[in-house]
């Protein structure tokens, strides 16, 4: 099992405060003889309809001195996990959890980020580290 991101517990707390129930920490996917671990799985029950919304969340911090390398790794994981989820758990949506500072630097109003979002179908949980809260879900 891979080590946890330094902001893993912040995302867990923020999701719980936003009404999510953490169901797996981590979510293990098995494809033939291979195992893959996504940081978190959660469900949100909509009381009016009793429908569950299922998500998987890969937590990234982009705190490395080599942010491009962090971006490459995060995108690679996202594409791999999204591909596997489409086959194994198609009802679950994948989100990349990143700090607001990283979202602002790499994706918001950034031509390369906009291309990546469009081409890779990226979805984000944007969080604030200091406030320990989710700021935005994209899309």
Question: What do you see in this structure?
Answer:
With about 140 residues, this protein is α/β, with parallel strands linked by helices. The protein has one domain: Trna Endonuclease, Chain: A, domain 1. It is built from 4 helices and 8 strands. It has helices at about 10-15, 65-90, 100-105, 110-120, and strands at about 20-25, 25-30, 35-40, 40-45, 50-60, 90-100, 125-130, 135-139. The strands form 2 sheets. Strands 1-4-5-6-7-8 form a 6-stranded mixed β-sheet, with helices on both faces. Strands 2-3 form a two-stranded antiparallel ribbon. Strand 7 (about 125-130) and strand 8 form a beta hairpin. The model has no long low-confidence stretch (mean pLDDT about 90).
- What is the string of SSEs from the N terminus onward? HEEEEEHEHHEE
| DSSP, total strands | 8
- In CATH terms, what is the fold-level topology? Trna Endonuclease, Chain: A, domain 1
CATH class: Alpha Beta
- Helical fraction: 25-40%
Rg on CA atoms, Å:
15 Å
């Amino acid at each position: 099992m891979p080590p946890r991101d330094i902001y893993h517990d912040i995302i867990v707390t923020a999701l719980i405060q936003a009404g999510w129930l953490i169901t797996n920490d981590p979510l293990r996917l098995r494809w033939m003889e291979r195992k893959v671990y996504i940081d978190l799985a959660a469900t949100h029950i909509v009381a009016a309809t009793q429908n569950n919304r299922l998500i998987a969340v890969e937590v990234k911090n982009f705190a490395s001195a080599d942010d491009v390398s962090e971006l490459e790794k995060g995108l690679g994981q996202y594409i791999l996990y999204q591909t596997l989820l489409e086959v194994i758990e198609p009802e679950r949506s994948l989100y990349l959890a990143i700090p607001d500072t990283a979202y602002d630097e790499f994706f918001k109003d950034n031509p390369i980020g906009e291309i990546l979002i469009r081409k890779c179908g990226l979805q984000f949980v944007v969080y604030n580290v200091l406030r320990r809260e989710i700021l935005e879900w994209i899309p």
